[in-house]
Amino acid sequence: MSNTTQSLAGTRITSLLDANSFVEIGQSVTARNTDFNMTEKKAPSDGVITGYGVIDGNLVYVYSQDVSVLNGTVGEMHAKKITRLYDMAMKTGAPVIGLIDCAGLRLQEATDALEAFGEIYMKQTLASGLIPQITGIFGTCGGGMALVPALTDFTFVEEKKGKLFVNTPNALAGNNISKCDTSAAKFQSEETGLVDGIGTEDEILGKIRELVTYLPSNCEDTDSYMECTDDLNRVCEDIENCTGDTAIALSRIADNGQFFEVKADYGKNVAVGFIRLNGATVGAVANRSESYDAEGNKAWESDGRLSARGARKAAEFVKFCDAFEIPVLTLTNVEGFEATVCSEKMMAKSVGQLVHAFADATVPKVNVIIGKAFGTAYTAMNSKAIGADMVYAWENAEIGMMDADLAAKIMYAGDDAAALNEKAGEYRELQNSVSSAAARGYVDTIISPADTRKYVIGAFEMLFTKREERPSKKHGTV
């Protein structure tokens, strides 16, 4: 690396990559523009360090913006370095990681800078679904630069200095930064669905390193495995007590108890992330009704219904997994749809996107029904009807249109309590029981909760060579 090694941008790269693995590209590039006394301003590397290295032995391409050089602003040559890095990454089939700390568009270069933004967007679009793209935000990422993380697959933001916005908080009608800092990492993580994790700079770099180990290098990489040191037939102890916080349930199923969750602060009633099963990466989607903090205290709870935000989050995650040939596991425990004005605004659209994502995905798909599976919310959660290859259900699961007591009240309105209880029992046995669903072929096998890991591993091994053709078309429109 050049003498920019000592800059913050260079330090971030060396902290991210394996020791002594970084090779810099284009260190002699500098700005061409001479307007507004630009010739008097030194611009080493034009404010961005680009190159390649390895993370745990995996080739990655990295660019890191240097805020000490023209505030890290994007100009013509700055952008060319990034787009050329993308060209190399797409040729060799390796991920691109962008470390953002940027004051935005370089005013001295005006239309050249605008063209530069567009060229970056174009390369990101071409790379989408071909190679994984990851963004880490450590300073300002505003205006047109905010579209860069929006076009990548995963985004992490430093919790104190990281700022992400299209319009600054003070530019929003009726708002100011003291009232609501819409650029803050916490707001972006909880409200936009764009941010996968927040933390200190070291934590963010650590999360990116860990994430890379789960991901294939490109959409054709089918050799992304780790040696499994866990018992494939291990009993999942106490997993039946984890139906509320399914992040814990997923860790019980996973190799060595490891679950890498993304977008944990957004759409909390759905948990999404990556686990390994027999050494292979699997994308996990699970309904969630509660979560616990590091001390074991309940931090959040809901009524077990699917929200619009949760559906949207799950849909985007499933589409990513399908693009990169990552199998998908779902844990279903849902009673219906969230009934709030806020959620209703986007409910049909978001659930439609979730249905389309599951139905359109051709990767191996396994569903485990671990609790209640009621109504079309259940249908949308990777049911047999929309393409699940294997569906398992725990012995105590319930599958049907709605809760038996409510169904009885609707069908036998006006009957006394004793009659309603009797009819509810009949409905529960005839329509909501897991055995009834299995008899109709909607469930393939009824299993004990403790045996979940071995059944799921067996299913994915059986589905390893799955091939599925779809009608010929350019692409869907949902």
Automatic annotation (TrEMBL):
Keywords: Transferase. One of its GO terms (cellular component) is acetyl-CoA carboxylase complex. Residues 1-230 form the CoA carboxyltransferase N-terminal domain. Residues 231-462 form the CoA carboxyltransferase C-terminal domain. Pfam families: Carboxyl_trans. InterPro entries: AccD/PCCB, AcCoA_carboxyl_beta, ClpP/crotonase-like_dom_sf, COA_CT_C, COA_CT_N. GO terms for molecular function: propionyl-CoA carboxylase activity; transferase activity. The keyword Nuclease does not apply. This is Carboxyl transferase. It comes from Blautia segnis.
